[in-house]
Amino acid sequence: xxxxxxxxxxxxxxxxxxxxxxxxxxxxxxxxxxxxxxxxxxxxxxxxxxxxxxxxxxxxxxxxxxxxxxxxxxxxxxxxxxxxxxxxxxxxxxxxxxxxxxxxxxxxxxxxxxxxxxxxxxxxxxxxxxxxxxxxxxxxxxxxxxxxxxxxxxxxxxxxxxxxxxxxxxxxxxxxxxxxxxxxxxxxxxxxxxxxxxxxxxxxxxxxxxxxxxxxxxxxxxxxxxxxxxxxxxxxxxxxxxxxxxxxxxxxxxxxxxxxxxxxxxxxxxxxxx
Amino acid sequence: xxxxxxxxxxxxxxxxxxxxxxxxxxxxxxxxxxxxxxxxxxxxxxxxxxxxxxxxxxxxxxxxxxxxxxxxxxxxxxxxxxxxxxxxxxxxxxxxxxxxxxxxxxxxxxxxxxxxxxxxxxxxxxxxxxxxxxxxxxxxxxxxxxxxxxxxxxxxxxxxxxxxxxxxxxxxxxxxxxxxxxxxxxxxxxxxxxxxxxxxxxxxxxxxxxxxxxxxxxxxxxxxxxxxxxxxxxxxxxxxxxxxxxxxxxxxxxxxxxxxxxxxxxxxxxxxxxxxx
Amino acid sequence: xxxxxxxxxxxxxxxxxxxxxxxxxxxxxxxxxxxxxxxxxxxxxxxxxxxxxxxxxxxxxxxxxxxxxxxxxxxxxxxxxxxxxxxxxxxxxxxxxxxxxxxxxxxxxxxxxxxxxxxxxxxxxxxxxxxxxxxxxxxxxxxxxxxxxxxxxxxxxxxxxxxxxxxxxxxxxxxxxxxxxxxxxxxxxxxxxxxxxxxxxxxxxxxxxxxxxxxxxxxxxxxxxxxxxxxxxxxxxxxxxxxxxxxxxxxxxxxxxxxxxxxxxxxxxxxxxxxxxxxxxxxxxx
Lengths: 274, 277, 286
Hints:
The structure holds three protein chains of three kinds. Chain B is of the alpha/beta class. Chain B is 38% helix and 23% strand.
């Protein structure tokens, strides 16, 4: 059932993380991803795990719900893991047929696999705690200074808004059309690839027609409500930077300081504290 | 009643169908004046031109002949198109395809945002218009979680947040269940009570009974025009145009043919009053 | 084709924060050749229920027996079940996709693997039954047809499968009065000519009172009560509880009685109402 899919994987809540300024969350998420590439050893990952754990706890999103998101990219993680395990030269631990597993390979595999896991958890925290519509506001606001460079900030945001609004509608529509054609004996599951591709025609044609009709109706409704692009438009949601956001920035600074320190300061200074 | 807020002066609208030489006349010399504060129902079967008429009032379509004036502005005058659309709001048939945002309150804000209304004022308008259509408690919900009638009420809130003088409803109940239809009709009557001019395009005769004027379009022309009582007495003409009369009107007609002297009634209460007196 | 539903339960979005029970312990029995209507407010589970009848939705628990066979059992030929139970969704014209009306109606029978000749006769029959003129329309694009014709075309596309039961989910929704009358007359004609079982979901109480042998009332994912139209519509309190209204003729009779007129009986159609009121006026005159 298509209704089972939760769009954008937003987890409703009122936690401090949910209420942070979306712009800040966007920037911090990007910074977090970059930070993962700064880390060179497992001690650094310790800092990452502590930070991620703290944010997950503060967001009150159940860990199970977050880990479920990893299922979708399980294959990619396994792929990364095995590629690293078998393709790294070094001290041979054991062999499986023609494949050799080296000590360095095993180390790399675990290291790279973890990096991917952290990356997914970190970025899914953004979508889990931020309503898509807020995210759109955040992106529009962050891109606004680039308007002079020809970046159509308002138009991009409007496109995202409409996409978010109509994804559920179109999913429902797809579901309905599929069922209707199945009731007429359509078969989407068996046969050669060519046959299966052909069997999509009875779904795609009505779906495109539907999408065009929605577009036409919506354009007319928007015009009737005086829409004329971004100029002269006011906004209901003005993003405000609050105290909560300042606290988040400071905490993030501590995290980056720890990571950078761990990576670049002489080992004896830093490790002395642990 | 005040001055005329909408004036159609010999409005003709033509469009060209694919692979056809001659343009089709969807509207053919329609002249109508709608008084401020009135409630006009426009009826007609599919293809009678009633929807084209609605879109001409909001400057979504422009006349091929004749002219349309809204609150004194000619719709053909591009300089005033935003004033016209702010004054003559429009609610469409499909409840799904006219909501822009994935959150109810953001959708209601869409019109005022376009008009450049200040943020604080937008918030006030959202609250007032959502409360007046009874959807305030749903302000944080997504449209896909709402029923058809609720979506349509949100669409109406989005229009009244623009403070229009009149609202044109283009078959707002055609895709709704009876409950949704009732909800929307209640809101329309409430708006009329508050002094907003209403133009209701519909093919449900029962809805037209609440109007103070009924216009029936057929083949792009005005076929009948008058109070509901006057129009619904023309049973033969109505049947010829493939429309249904309200149940009570049909019943009164059948009883008259059996020799009973039934007065011109259009509402159930009137029928009850006659039969029970 | 007889249809029996036993203790059916269905849950949407199980295990997500959006989980909701759509059907709960639903049981019903429909005899071969019966005309049964299902009524209930939006969200009461009507559409979910009928999507179980041809195996498009799988029950969480409970059984659906079509002609005595449990369609959820292993080894059941689902395409055959779907042929037997023709299902029409709301606004079914959205399923049209072919270049010509002929090809679109032929889609179902072709999927059944019938020969070109057999498909041809199926298409002609279905168009005749739905009142679509074969010579004038079969080579036209389905998208050029009027609203009412598109609806008929979609129904023809299901009829061409040769169903033994036809399930229609609000077949007159969004149509103007003339097309509404057309479609309703067409459904009655299909039943008379083919003698097949008809299951109709409708919000129009007048239609339901007029056409059905029996009526099931759904509320909150359950069957609230059922019976003949006269029985069901006599139960005003429970109908109101389920958020449903009365057929307009019955509503008028109720108002008249409340106003002191002694109308004898519950008129379900305009003809009955005219008779009853006429008789009342005669009595009063006398």
